[in-house]
Structure formats: structure tokens, C-alpha cells
From TrEMBL:
UniProt topology in membrane: Peripheral membrane protein
Taxonomy of the source species: Bacteria, Pseudomonadati, Bacteria division LCP-89
NCBIfam families: fliM_switch
Species in which this protein is naturally found: candidate division LCP-89 bacterium B3_LCP
Keyword presence, Cell membrane: yes
Any one biological process term the GO annotation gives: positive chemotaxis
Protein's recorded name: Flagellar motor switch protein FliM
Location within or outside the cell: Bacterial flagellum basal body; Cell membrane
Coiled-coil annotated spans: none
Amino acid sequence: MNKILSQEEIEALLSNVSESQDVDIDEEIEKEESKALQFYDFKHPDRISKDQIRSLRTLHENFSRLLATYLSTVLRVMVDVNLLSIDQVTYSEYTMSLSTPSSIYVLSSENLDGKLIIELCPALLLYMVDRLLGGTGDSTTESREITVIEQNVVRNIINNLIKIFNEVWSQAVDLDCKYSSFETDPQFVQIARSSDIIAVIFVEVQIKGQSYQMNICIPYYMLEPILPKLSSQAVIGLTKKSSESDSIMLNVNLSATQLPVVVQLAKARITIKDLLSFRRNDVIRLETRTDDELPVFIKDRAKYKGLPGRKGRHRAVQISNIIEPLDQIYHQ
């Protein structure tokens, strides 16, 4: 039979229901508050994932190493190139951050149908010009606009820089970038719309305690078709290939290294007394005969034996033998 509840029992049931609901609501609020908040910038959306950023970092770390080796060889001074950061900003913010005058090299890529920028500090180009023309590079000149003659002086270095950039990127995708134009005013360079997102790779070049800035600007519309190739698997492949490319570049730079070559025509031993008594037309008797082989020194080390002669209007020596390691001690 049905039991009729008293007023006290009804109030007890209602109080229990309200308490359970309050507890559930409090627990839900605590759970929501415990979740970590993530901020999203609608003005600067991250179009490139962290995994793809790591791949870009690996690519340009290899580029920095190869560029440092090349500049050290060409400028004949120790050069250190370091990758600082990779940021995503709008193109208008990037152009506003550049100083005037700048040294902006615009590159065109036929494979990706677009253009990118390599911006160098004008002081770095002036240092290169000074070194290539025989200067010490120690003179400090104020940053100024690069003249057409100075552009032509460093053109070979820029072409090789672009070549290294293409070789590094070819491990992931073939960019095939080529020199398009040179500008000194950022306002005259328009490779993307003002609101377009671009990836900016900041690089630091250190020479004799001086720091020079260089950056690479790649629009997102160029990266979008190749972003699927910039994955974690690509990073592993790039790491393996980087050692091979470093070895090839090292062999090329070593092959182009110049060493002094000295041929010792003759030698003699005299006393201090004879040296002090020398007069004009005195004759020194040498220990070498006219038909003897002469030692050929490579950087103060006797490496070969040769016969003296002439080639055209120039004096020359013909390598006739290789000096063995034990014989080098005799010629030191």
C-alpha cells in the first residue's frame, strides 16, 4: 500500500537533493578552473606547427654551419654563424623592423612560384668588401648604403650563399632560388601582402668579436605546399644527410686552401767571424751542386724534391721525388 510522507520527511528529502547538486556543481567548477588556459592570438596565428618549426631549425642550423665554413675560407678569418630564432609575424611588422638603409637580396623560386628575402647587415657587407680588397677589416665604418661597385665586389659571395641555401633545402625540397634584385629601402620590397604571415629566421654572424645580423624571410604561401614534408621523419633524414654535406663542403674548402710553397736553392754554414768580415764581391761556397735536387717546403715542412728551371718567362721547379717522413727530419 502507498505510504503518505510526512512534512518532515519531505523536507529531509529535498535538503539531501540540494546538497548533492551543490557538491556536483562545485566539483565541476574546480575541474574547469584546474584546466590550463591557452592563449590564442588572432592577429598573429601560428600557421606553422612546432614539429615543422623544429625541421626548419634543423635545416638552417646546417645552413649556418656550412656558411661559417665558407666565409672563414673566403675572408681568411674565423667566422662563427649561429641560428638565433624562428618567428612568425606579419609582413608589415617585418618590413617596419628593418633599418634604413638595409641590404636586401630578393630571391625568386621557380619551383614554388614566389619570392623570399635574405637581409644582411650593411656593416657585414662593408667588412667583406674591405677583406676582399686586401684590408684588415679592423676599421670601423658607419652603416651606410652599399654602392653598386661594392655590390659587384661581394656578388660572388652572395651567389655562393644562395648556392649553399639551395643545397641545404634540397634535402627536403628543391627550392631552386635565384638572385632577383637588390634593394636598400624595405618600403620598395613587396613579396607578400601586409597581413600575410611570414617565417623569419634570425641568424647571427660573429667575426673578431663583432656581431652582425642576418635574417631570412619566407612567406607562408611559399611554405604551405611543402609543410607536409617538414615532419619529424624529415628531421631524422636531414640529420643524417647533414654530416655528408658537411664532409663534401669541408673537402671543397680544404681543396681551395692556399699554402706557401718555398724552394730552397742552396744553403751554407759560416762562422760569425767570416760573416763580420764579408766585403763586396766576396764569394760564399755553397753545399749544393748545380745538378742536385732541391727541397720543396710546404708551410715550413720539406715535402718534395725538385729540379730548378724555367717555364716561359717564369722561374719554375719540377717535382722529381717525394720526401719520406724520415727524410723530412734531415731537411728541417
